Write a sequence for this structure.
């Protein structure tokens, strides 16, 4: 028999065996196909979501041939690269941007070209709830050149001066729809929304589209009449250009436009660029590299390796059970003259057949699902696909990996089956096999070596060692799993029948249980590692985040003196529309000098009031000035973190005050402001304020219970009356004030260092004005609530701003949830597979149970506990394994943070390691329970007892 003839027979036997055992074959095909499906979908999605250069050009200029724009470099000639990404003045002596009007781009257009203008400004418009700010784009959207840049979803494009089209995100936020009317504030003109459009390259854009001249011109005229400041791009236009006779815009046209100071991005030039000899700017760009490295990162290699390992671990037990179920057939191969290699060929052929079917099915299903869920993926990515980008070579590689995975999964069962004697195979005896004593020892040593390598990689900053050590540690833990599973059998001595049988069955059949546990461990380890790293990074971001307001508060602040009179109406709007939990607390500003406009005068034009920090330890921040670097070099990251958050160093951190005109941190307030904004409910502090004693929040400014308040009385040049009454230099006055010191933790209150009672400020001869209000709210204002308050304030006359703090970004929460769901699905799948294999492998035991009179529910509870054992064991081991790379990677971050801290002492080195308890809880508690309940629910209670042969 030739080699090919033997393999032909083996493939035929494997195909027939797969057809006979359809359930087990479908299980193996699904296990191989699912990861192939995921990788295929990820590959097609990644290739499709990354736009080609041609697709980027279409998104920026529609179907036009070129985009002409003013680079803002004055009227002199410029030079540019063919793609328009880099440009500069053509000569060092070229005049820079000045006060001259913008370039008239139309003078630089090619002769006979057709062009439409494109202009965008932010403006305030009315909504269903109130008013909001949105980008208004003037462009003839009905022109064919706009196709690809703007797409009409429903309704019609605007025509005429009284119509607009809107994007879906704007309509969702504003509560408007097609047919609604909105009013442009400033020009006070009303427009009808005629259609819904989208920007294919930015599906989340909140914008309105109008015809050229319909919005910006009347709005500009109204602003000039009312002497209001216009946005910087109110008179800046871009032009979409179509070349004459379909000839496009050539490089010579681009150079001609450059000579007039106009920047051009031409489709023809970008796709087919001229040689460097024809590009004036190419000489200055020579020697630069623009390509990215194509090397795969160590992390990506680790992910691919663990994914293949997980597949092998999941599919391996299925082939092992299949080989045992077919051992009589394999024995017959031996009686017909077949040797060990023929038995191995039959089992390996099963891997080849099922792996091939799974690979093909996975690739086909991955492409189909990507096509079906394309709109959802585009919405998540935020841009439309130009087309589904399919790379046949990449899909072929993915399919080959699936095929090889099937072969690898069948390799160990093939070797085991070939070593069985023909007598054992025909009689159905499994024989007695002892567990290896060497494997656990090697696994423990490998585990320790992997952990040591990963930790060393973390402390030395080598991410490759971290990845390699993590894989080695996980492989070492894999070697220990059989011993761990064997130990489980001893835990069931005092348990009821079903859990005791499940634990003993898992321990007795380690060859089936251990790989399933390992597969769960591999999936959970990756998810826990990423979740731990991201949770730690999120905790670091939250630590470094500087709030603009105290949590649970909003602030109303007047922007000028006239707006102060409108505060009562603004308060009414807030109290009606927001979830206010208490009445308002007034806050005021204090300044020295004349009654000038502190909102718009230059710095210190109206005088200044500031707290003087005493010198010495506990007052001056040691991380600033002489000796700071030397001190930082001697500190640990934790000690540095504590020092940065000490009262002496808090003011060295940059933060914006929420109170206009009160950047020095000295504010006017009473006991209600203390409890509402500062959240300090201290009767002694309230009593002190009532008695005229200031309350100091930052103790670094106090010495012997007193603070130094320096007031520089200056009279503005614009305040001619007071300047005549008080000529000469500014007068400086310093006062020592007895203060009540709040507990140290209140030093972090945003925008406030000291609360000064109104009567004390007047005694000191300072000017005062109550110019804002603070509210405690049950939740941060929603978009609709913000719009309602803004509308009410605008009706009252405007000039008052509502401020709220949204807190640090929570975008990572969705990623953590996705990782938890992914690991949960894999855990459920692996546990279900292990349970199904256990049932298929233990039919004789289940038949015996029924024969001796076991209640029907025993079958259900036994299946449930078998599934629970696999899921829970795998999750706990996976959590432990996943912490190794996460901790090592955080050590790398800590090393880099400490290096930065020692160079710049005020840079934070705080690098926490935070466990994602929600993710771990979901995986360790919810998922195993679901797996056990699901297995019990889908198991039949009764079984027909078949008569045994022989």
């Amino acid at each position: 028999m030739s080699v090919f003839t033997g393999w032909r027979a083996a493939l035929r036997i494997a195909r027939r065996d797969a057809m006979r055992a359809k359930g087990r074959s479908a299980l193996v095909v699904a296990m191989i196909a699912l990861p192939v499906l995921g990788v295929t979908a990820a590959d097609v999605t990644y290739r499709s979501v990354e736009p080609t250069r041609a697709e980027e050009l279409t998104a920026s200029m529609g179907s036009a041939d070129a985009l002409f724009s003013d680079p803002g470099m004055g009227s002199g000639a410029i030079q540019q690269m063919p793609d328009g990404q880099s440009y500069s003045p053509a000569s060092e002596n070229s005049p820079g941007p000045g006060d001259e009007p913008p370039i008239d781009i139309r003078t630089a257009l090619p002769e006979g070209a057709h062009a439409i203008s494109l202009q965008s400004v932010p403006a305030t418009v009315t909504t269903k709830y109130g008013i909001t700010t949105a980008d208004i784009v003037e462009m003839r959207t009905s022109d064919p050149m706009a196709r690809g840049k703007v797409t009409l979803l429903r309704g019609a494009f605007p025509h005429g001066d009284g119509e607009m089209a809107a994007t879906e995100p704007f309509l969702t936020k504003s509560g408007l729809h097609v047919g609604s009317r909105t009013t442009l504030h400033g020009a006070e003109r009303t427009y009808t929304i005629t259609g819904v459009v989208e920007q294919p390259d930015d599906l989340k854009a909140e914008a309105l589209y109008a015809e050229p001249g319909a919005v910006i011109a009347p709005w500009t005229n109204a602003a000039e009449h009312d002497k209001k400041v216009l946005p910087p791009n109110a008179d800046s236009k871009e032009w979409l250009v179509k070349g004459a006779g379909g000839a496009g815009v050539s490089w010579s046209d681009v150079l001609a436009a450059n000579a007039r100071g106009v920047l051009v991005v031409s489709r023809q030039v970008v796709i087919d660029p001229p040689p460097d000899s024809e590009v004036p700017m190419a000489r200055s760009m020579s020697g630069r590299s623009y390509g990215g490295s194509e090397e795969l990162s160590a992390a990506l290699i680790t992910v691919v390796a663990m994914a293949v390992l997980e597949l092998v671990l999941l599919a391996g037990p299925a082939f092992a059970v299949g080989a045992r179920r077919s051992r009589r057939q394999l024995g017959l191969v031996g009686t017909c003259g077949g040797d060990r290699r023929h038995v191995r060929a039959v089992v390996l052929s099963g891997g080849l057949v099922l792996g091939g079917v799974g690979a093909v099915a996975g690739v086909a299903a991955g492409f189909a699902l990507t096509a079906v869920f394309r709109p959802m993926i585009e919405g998540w990515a935020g841009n439309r696909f130009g087309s589904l980008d399919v790379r046949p070579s990449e899909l072929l590689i993915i399919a080959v990996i699936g095929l090889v995975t099937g072969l690898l999964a069948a390799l160990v069962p093939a070797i085991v089956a070939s070593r069985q004697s023909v007598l054992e195979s025909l009689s159905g005896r499994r024989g007695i096999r002892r567990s290896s004593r060497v494997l656990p020892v090697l696994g423990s040593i490998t585990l320790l070596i992997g952990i040591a390598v990963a930790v060393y990689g973390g402390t030395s900053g080598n991410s490759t060692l971290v990845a390699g050590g993590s894989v080695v540690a996980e492989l070492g833990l894999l070697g220990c799993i059989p011993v761990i599973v064997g130990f489980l059998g001893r835990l069931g001595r005092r348990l009821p029948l079903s859990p005791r049988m499940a634990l003993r069955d898992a321990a007795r059949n380690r060859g089936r249980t251990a790989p399933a546990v390992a597969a769960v461990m591999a999936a959970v380890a990756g998810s826990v590692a990423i979740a731990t790293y991201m949770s730690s990074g999120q905790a670091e971001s939250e630590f470094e985040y500087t709030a603009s307001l105290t949590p649970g508060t909003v602030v109303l602040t007047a922007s000028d003196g006239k707006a102060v009179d409108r505060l009562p109406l603004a308060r009414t709007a807030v109290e009606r529309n927001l979830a206010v939990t208490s009445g308002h607390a007034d806050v005021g500003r204090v300044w020295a000098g004349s009654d000038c406009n502190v909102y718009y005068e230059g710095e210190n034009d109206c005088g200044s009031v500031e707290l003087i920090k005493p010198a010495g330890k506990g007052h001056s921040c040691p991380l600033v000035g002489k000796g700071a670097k030397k001190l930082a070099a001697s500190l640990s990251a934790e000690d540095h973190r504590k020092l940065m958050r000490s009262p002496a160093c808090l003011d060295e951190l940059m933060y914006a005050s929420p109170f206009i005109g009160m950047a020095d941190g000295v504010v006017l307030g009473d006991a209600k402001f203390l409890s509402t904004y500062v959240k300090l409910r201290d009767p002694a502090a309230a009593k002190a304020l009532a008695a005229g004693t200031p309350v100091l929040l930052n103790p670094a400014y106090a010495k012997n219970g007193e603070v130094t308040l320096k007031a520089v009385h200056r009279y503005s040049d614009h305040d001619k009356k007071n300047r005549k009454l008080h000529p000469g230099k500014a007068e400086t006055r310093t006062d020592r004030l007895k203060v009540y010191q709040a507990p140290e933790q209140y030093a972090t209150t945003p925008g406030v260092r000291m609360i000064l009672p109104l009567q004390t400020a007047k005694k000191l001869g300072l000017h005062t004005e109550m110019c804002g209000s603070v509210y405690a709210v049950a939740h941060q204002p929603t978009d609709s609530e913000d719009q309602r308050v803004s509308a009410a304030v605008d009706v009252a006359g405007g000039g008052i701003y509502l401020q709220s703090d949204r807190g640090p970004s929570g975008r990572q929460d969705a990623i953590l949830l996705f990782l938890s769901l992914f690991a949960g699905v894999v855990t459920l799948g692996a546990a279900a597979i292990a349970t199904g294999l256990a049932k298929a492998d233990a039919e004789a035991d289940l038949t015996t149970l029924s024969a001796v009179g076991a209640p029907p529910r025993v079958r259900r509870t036994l299946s449930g506990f078998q599934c629970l054992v696999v899921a829970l064991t795998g999750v706990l081991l996976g959590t432990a394994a996943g912490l190794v790379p996460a901790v090592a990677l955080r050590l790398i971050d800590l090393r880099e943070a400490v290096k930065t801290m020692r160079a710049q002492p005020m840079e934070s080195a705080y690098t926490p390691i935070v466990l994602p308890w929600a993710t771990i809880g979901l995986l360790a508690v919810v998922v195993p329970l679901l797996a056990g309940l699901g297995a019990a629910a889908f198991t039949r209670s009764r079984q027909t007892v078949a008569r045994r042969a022989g």
Q: What stands out?
A: The radius of gyration is 37 Å. The longest strand covers residues 114-126. Residues 614-650 form one domain. The longest helix spans residues 857-903.
